[in-house]
Structures are given as C-alpha cells and as structure tokens.
Design a protein that fits this description.
By secondary structure, the protein is α/β, with parallel strands linked by helices. The chain is globular. Bound molecules: S-adenosylmethionine.
Length: 211
C-alpha cells in the first residue's frame, strides 16, 4: 500500500495546520492535473507522497533553516518537484520554478494556486536564459552536473545569509562519483537514507555544490 500524507507529517512533525492542509490537498490536485497534462508517470502518481513529495523534501533535511527573503530557483521543475513541496515547507522563502516545456508550467501554476501558495512564481523559460540572482538553485533529475553547472554559474547572490553557503542542491541519480569528477565541481554527497528510515528512492543523494 502506498503511504498517505502521514509520511510527510512523520518526517516533518512541526508543520502548521495550514501547511498540513496544503500537503494534504496535493493528493487531489496532482491526479486531477496529471490526467490532463502528464507530468508524473501514472505508476508514480500513486506513490505521490513517497516518490515525489518526500523525495523533494530531502533537500530540506540538509538545509533545515532558511532566512526569510531567501530566493531559490528550481531548474527543470516539471510538474513542480522539488519546488512545490519546498515552497510549502518554507513559506517565507521565494521560489522561482522554471521549465523549458510550457504545459508543465501550466500544471505548476494551477497546483500553486489550488493550494494557495503565495511564494511561487513559475515561468516557461530555459534556465540558461534567466537573468536573475538567487541564493540557491535546486533541481531534480534534469541533466548531468557538467552540463547543468554552466547554465546557472552566474546566477548566485554573493552574500551568504543562510546557515550554509549559497549553492546547488541537486537530487540526482546515476554514477555520481564519475559525474562529479567529470564536472570538476567541489561537490558533497548527502545520503537520503541518513534522513529517512524508509528505503524507497531511486535517487539516493542530495548533491550540494557551494557556489
Ligand atoms: C526528467 S524531468 C524532471 C522534472 C522534475 N524536476 C521532477 O523531478 O519531477 C526534466 C525536466 O527538465 C526540463 N528541462 C530540461 N532542460 C532544461 C533547461 N535548460 N531549462 C529548463 N528546464 C529544462 C525538461 O523540460 C523536463 O521537464
């Protein structure tokens, strides 16, 4: 049986009633929009909370506190992962979700509106074309680090107001050691199994690259 929203409450026990309601609403909103515009595989939508929502929140187990006003870019957000779950968790942080496919951004906007998220902007644009600065860039399953880093290298604010220096937070699978070597980046691997006792993710690490 696939876990319900309770799995989110289990790992994030300090959620406010409003946040709990937003997480709970995803269970209706995503299947509705996914039937019209496919953003998540049919098989995976049944394990929405485990494979998408909790997985996205792995980033929040590594960066647990963010200063109000922090700006985060989600590159290749697809249907809103990891950006939407993170935006629920950090209502005082601004999230810019972008994707190169317009219909995916439609789903992101509909989901954000349906659950009342005020801290999300979503745009149909390639990451390389953006001309803004951010504190962090998050992403999940978009491309190899060596290709990804040049897209966003010039998009970081210089000042570090958060507990960890600005940088990339990437949920990424594949042969990461080889990828990190290829990218020549100074990257750290943080295992999701150190945050979550349930073993369920195809992608097992948050890759953190200070920038
Ligand atoms: C495999 S999907 C992952 C979607 C989402 N991050 C997730 O984990 O469910 C990769 C997404 O990256 C988007 N993408 C690829 N290259 C991009 C670029 N240069 N700028 C913005 N989005 C891009 C694609 O359109 C696609 O939606």
């Amino acid at each position: 049986m696939n876990p319900t929203v309770d799995i989110i409450y289990k790992y994030f026990p300090k959620l406010t009633p409003a946040q709990k309601e937003q997480f709970a609403k995803l269970e209706e909103v995503y299947p509705f929009w996914n039937d019209q515009i496919n953003v998540v595989s049919r098989k995976d939508i049944e394990s929405l909370y485990l494979k998408h929502v909790l997985h996205s929140l792995g980033i929040a187990k590594f960066v647990t506190e963010l200063t109000p006003g922090t700006r985060i870019l989600d590159v290749g957000t697809g249907g809103g992962f990891p950006g939407i779950p993170l935006a629920i968790l950090f209502p005082h942080v601004h999230f810019h979700l972008v994707d190169s496919i317009g219909k995916k951004i439609k789903v992101v906007r509909e989901v954000a509106e349906a659950i009342g998220l005020k801290n999300v902007d979503a745009d149909h644009i390639r990451a390389e074309q953006l001309d803004y600065k951010y504190d962090f860039v998050v992403s999940r399953a978009v491309t190899r680090l060596a290709d990804f880093a040049p897209w966003i290298r010039n998009k970081f604010e210089k000042k570090d107001k958060n507990a960890i220096p600005n940088g990339i937070l990437y949920l990424k699978g594949g042969d990461l050691k080889e990828e990190i070597k290829e990218s020549k980046l100074k990257a750290e691997l943080h295992s999701l199994s150190s945050y979550f006792e349930d073993e369920f993710f195809d992608t097992k690490y948050v890759v953190y690259v200070p920038m």
